[in-house]
Amino acid sequence: MSVDKLTLIQDDILTLQLHNHVLQAAGYAIISFNTDGVMIYASDSMVHLTGYTPDEMIGLTYEELAQLLAPTRDLTCTQSFEHDFQSHQAITHHIISKEGDERWIEYRIINTLEDEHIHALVQDVTQRYLAEQALANQIQQSEKQYEEIQALFDKVNKLEQLKSDMIRVAAHDLRSPLAVFVTHLDVMSLELQEPNATPDKDALIAHMEDMRLATKRMRRIIEDILSLERIEQNAQHAEYAPVELTPIVQGIFRDYQTQAHANNLKFTLTCPNTPLRISGDIAQLREAVANLISNALKYTPQGGDVHVKIECKHNQVRFEVIDTGYGIPKDKQPSLFQPFYRAKSKETRHIEGTGLGLYLVKNIVERHHGELIFKSVQGKGSHFGFELPLLLP
Predict the structure, then answer these.
(1) Which neighbouring-strand residues pair with 308?
(2) What is the pLDDT of residues 37-69, one digit of tens each?
(3) pTM score > 0.70 for this model?
(4) Which residue of 209, 268, 271, 350 has the fewest CB atoms within a 10 Å radius of its CB?
């Protein structure tokens, strides 16, 4: 061998040793695989990254190397290791070192066009990986907190708007019955102040009846508004527990039988004999059931039918109130569950209310992870109700 060729070989060896020292100082190791996927070279730095010496690793296949470095990895992950290694430029893998330490290593493919072997630089990126994961978790937590704050902000805005609407509606709806009440008081005072005034019993009774009705209207308006506030407050401290819905419906049905009889309505109830248990808050459920039954009785003219039904379908408890009442105009149905909205028609304009009942029902059903039931045809009646998840034994 010539001196020049020997010098070149010595230079190549020195260059390789220098490269290895530089890579080792930088925290890198070098590994190489042949075309059959067998490791043919591992630099000494691999012992610092994995705890295994080059002699323990050379001769291993992709699969064997994956099982050595990650013994808990399943077959799918092992196949993924081989695929990733052959087709990607930079891949991070979780490993367990020979000493049992948990680490993350990254390898970068450094193949050249002239070489069919697969070469890669390997680096311990545990600290970087953990820092990135911590940052990602912090970002995720911050996003979740932001969403919670945004939801709370939206809820506060909604409640503030609702409070403003309550004040507006109360001021508007209370003005009329209050005016009736004051007018009759003024008339009665003038009549009694007349010299030698003799009270007319029939006139006094008429005045008193009008005042009683006005007072009743004011009380109903106030109760509706307070009911909304009470439900909103109770929702913050609701106690959800296993509840039998059938006894609740039966009790409220009995409460309204007198009103139905007074209005000459056919008022019927159908319910199963088997228990229907749901997770719910009894106070809120009673409010929802009572609202729907009360509405049906209110908006069904004399001689009509109101049928209350409860049943189980597809692991859902289904409560329904079906009436043959006035029905709701189609153009007014989209806004029906908005607060303070009343779908007035020629037949129902005389019926009093604040438009809060269905809004309450909608909120209660949503809090119980249920779905509303609604359909109506003007002049033929309405069908209201809800479905709630059945508690399975």
Answers:
(1) 269, 321
(2) 889 988 888 888 889 999 999 999 888 888 888
(3) no
(4) 350
